[in-house]
Amino acid sequence: MHMVTTSPPPASEPAETLQAASELLRALASPVRLGIVRELSTGGKYVHELVATLGVSQPLVSQHLRVLRTSRIVTARRQARETQYTLTDDHVAHIVLDAIRHAQE
Predict the structure, then answer these.
(1) Do 96 and 28 contact (CB within 8 A), yes or no?
(2) How many CA within 13 A on the CB side of residue 41?
(3) pLDDT digits (tens, 9 = 90+) for 40-77
(4) Which NCBIfam families match (predicted)?
(5) Domain segments of the chain: what residues?
(6) What confidence score (pLDDT) does residue 103 get?
């Protein structure tokens, strides 16, 4: 059994903070969205790159990217005729990569 080495958060977290954390986890609660975040953890990607790497259809990737954008997990930047997607910050990548590693144990 692994011991948790991080200190627990204060017991008096505001309800808004817990609600925001819940919404973040809900937005990540999909294998495709976890895969997108994993891929974006190494840098920005275009939709066609995500389609090729994840092995799912372009409409499905676009649908999941829309959820991640709405949740402010990813940002989109238009470049010529394509849109490049990047993570808003590295915190979400750590959560996802830690969850994947944990599932592999």
Answers:
(1) yes
(2) 17
(3) 999 999 999 999 999 999 999 999 999 999 999 999 99
(4) HTH_metalloreg
(5) 27-104
(6) 94
**What are the start-end ranges of the H helices in 1-105?**
15-28, 31-40, 47-54, 58-70, 90-104
Amino acid found at 101: R
Specify the pTM: 0.84
pLDDT at 1: 47
Task: Report the candidate in 55, 49, 44 with the shortest Cα–Cα distance to residue 85.
Answer: 44
Triad 54, 89, 85: Cα angle to 5°: 40
Cα-Cα-Cα-Cα torsion 59, 47, 71, 67, nearest 10 degrees, comes to 10
Q: So what's the pLDDT on residue 13? A: 74
Find where tokens 């190494």 sit: 42
| CATH class of domain segment(s) 27-104 | mainly alpha
DSSP state of 80: T
